[in-house]
Amino acid sequence: MADELQQTDVGNSQEDEDNKRYCWVCYASDEDDETAPWVKPCRCRGTTKWVHQSCLQRWVDEKQKGNSTVKVNCPQCGIEYHIAFPNMGQLMLFLDRVDALIYKVCPFVAAGVVVGSIYWTAVTYGAITVMQVVGYQEGMTQMEASDPLVLLVGLPTIPIFLILGKMVRWEDKVLRLIRASVHRLPFLKYLLPAFRYESSVGVSTTAVISDPVNATRVLCGALSLPTIATVAGRLFFPAVQDNLTRTLLGGVSFLVVKGIFKVYYKQQQHVMQSRRKIIDYQQVR
Ligand SMILES: [Zn+2]
Ligand SMILES: [Zn+2]
């Protein structure tokens, strides 16, 4: 009986009632459509053994979603469908290979381009920073005198160190230190008004306002530091002749002033948080 079925699996067939074929996709039988070709693509027996060639192709298309290399399995028995393609000649085979190769290589090329662009941006940024900090002429002379390899490795580390430095949250440590000192030495409260409300019974249980590291903020802050340092140096230390010293002085004073404001701001936020009250509901009529 099985052999009989195999011989008649394509095209019209005269099945007897016992072996009536039903398509598990469209539920049609031989009587509904006498011409549609059938296939039994897997190990399934019984009602899910037969399926229309066209119905199964539609189902496979749906599973593959346009990617003809995706393997499709029978939902019942799990057997992978064997899909045969007609031989389209050597050229088609070659084009197919080329296509697959391009598909595989492109992500690496794209990643390389992105990494390369970031690297060259970092090199350029490093060079600009050197000229900004030590002066255009001096920077140019120094870089021209340096080994190119040293420059290619050294210059991109400048933005990296700036970003790493920006991620050191020293203000938080200072804030914690001041709070701890205020608990131990209450007279400090009169020197630092912002800490007046710091409870003297111990460290407040109020959650410290979380201040998550924000990537764009770190990036902008870190990369603008040399410019700010140069400007601050020119503004506040015009008497200093050496470019590097003046910029360093400008940078350090900027960081210190900014740190003081940040500590103050965070402490005030903390005070606001620990002295907040939830108000009674007022019936509005
Ligand atoms: Zn069907
Ligand atoms: Zn199956």
From TrEMBL:
Reactions this protein catalyses: S-ubiquitinyl-[E2 ubiquitin-conjugating enzyme]-L-cysteine + [acceptor protein]-L-lysine = [E2 ubiquitin-conjugating enzyme]-L-cysteine + N(6)-ubiquitinyl-[acceptor protein]-L-lysine
Chief subcellular location: mitochondrion
PROSITE patterns noted in UniProt: ZF_RING_CH (PS51292)
Example of a GO MF term: ubiquitin protein ligase activity
Subcellular location: Mitochondrion membrane; Mitochondrion outer membrane
Lineage top rank: taxon: Eukaryota
Listed EC numbers: 2.3.2.27
Pfam families cross-referenced by the UniProt entry: RINGv
Membrane topology listed for this record: Multi-pass membrane protein
CDD domains associated with the record: RING_CH-C4HC3_MARCH5
SMART domains xrefs: RINGv
GO cellular component terms attached to this protein's record: mitochondrial outer membrane
RING-CH-type domain segment(s): 15-84
Keywords: Membrane, Metal-binding, Mitochondrion, Mitochondrion outer membrane, Transferase, Transmembrane, Transmembrane helix, Ubl conjugation pathway, Zinc, Zinc-finger
Pathway connected to this protein: Protein modification; protein ubiquitination
Membrane-traversing stretches: 101-128, 148-168, 218-236, 248-265
Protein known as: E3 ubiquitin-protein ligase MARCHF5
